[in-house]
Structures are given as structure tokens and as C-alpha cells.
Design goal:
Blueprint lengths: L10 H4 L3 H13 L8 H12 L4 E2 L2 E2 L6 H4 L13
Antiparallel strand pairs: 1-2
Length: 83
């Protein structure tokens, strides 16, 4: 099976199941509820990131973060001020 090449994908688009849980899911689960963005805001942020030319394989090229982790924080902000 060939690995999919995708530049403007989130990590959840590239990997699923246990690998996703190891990389991202564990962090999201332990993020305190009071510090977590609500689900609709989180998805809205990720859609903005998906359309950004600074996204590469789930990583923001402006700051180096995994966008799925940054977007989960209630008070987090995009480094180029898109959200």
C-alpha cells in the first residue's frame, strides 16, 4: 500500500487509529475541559488551517506546531492571525 502524500492535510487525515491516538489523541484527552476550545470552534480553526498555504503534513510552517494541538486550546491563536 502506498503512503498518501498530502501537503495540506491534518494528521488525522494522514493517519488513523492507534497511531493518531499516540500522536495527537492522548494530548487532546488530557487537555483540561476549561482550557479546551468547544468542538465547533476547534473544527472551524482546523478548516482555516487546511486552506492555509503554511500547512504541511499537519504542521504549521510559521511556528512548527501541530495545528490539531494548537487549535484545541481555548485561548490559542494562529501565528499569522487567521483565527
Amino acid at each position: 500500500m502506498e503512503q498518501r502524500v498530502c501537503y495540506r492535510c491534518l494528521i488525522r487525515d494522514l493517519i488513523q487509529g492507534e497511531d493518531y491516538e499516540k500522536r495527537i489523541g492522548q494530548y487532546l484527552k488530557v487537555l483540561d475541559e476549561k482550557d479546551r476550545a468547544d468542538a465547533s470552534l476547534y473544527e472551524q480553526r482546523l478548516e482555516t488551517c487546511r486552506s492555509c498555504n503554511r500547512l504541511l503534513d499537519g504542521t504549521c510552517l510559521s511556528c512548527g506546531c501541530y495545528v490539531e494541538i494548537r487549535a484545541a486550546g481555548k485561548t490559542a491563536a494562529c501565528p499569522v492571525k487567521k483565527w
